Amino acid sequence: ESLIQPDYAPVWISKQIKKYTQELCIITFGPLTNIGLAFHNSQSVKVLSTIRINGGAFTGVGNVINSGCS
């Protein structure tokens, strides 16, 4: 089976959470966009066993760029 999946990443993440429910532990590194979209667009976060976040900004500004900012 190919490791490359045709699904949009947030949709695939949501499917895996629903499929593996309490068995799945998500460990993140770097940008959290796909995780955020997966949680925003479904109720999957309610059944997730564990998520470990290794990145992002909790109290700071985080990774920002000047383009698009006013």
Percent in strands:
5-15%
Runs in which pLDDT lies below 50 for 5 or more consecutive residues are none
The average pLDDT value, as a whole number, equals 75
Terminal-residue CA separation = 47 Å
Largest sheet: 2 strands, parallel
Strand order of the largest sheet: 1-2
Rg (CA only): 14 Å
Q: How many β-strand runs? A: 2
Helix percentage range: 25-40%
**Overall form:** globular
Please tally the helical runs, counting DSSP H or I stretches of 4 or more residues. Answer: 2
Class inferred from helices and paired strands: alpha+beta
Secondary-structure element order, N to C: HEHE
Features:
70 residues, alpha+beta, two-stranded parallel sheet, 2 strands, 14% strand, globular
Q: What can you tell me about this protein's structure?
A:
The chain is an alpha+beta fold. It has two helices and two strands, in the order αβαβ. The protein has a two-stranded parallel ribbon with strand order 1-2. Strand 1 (25-29), helix 2 and strand 2 (50-54) form a beta-alpha-beta unit. Helix 1 packs across helix 2. It is globular.
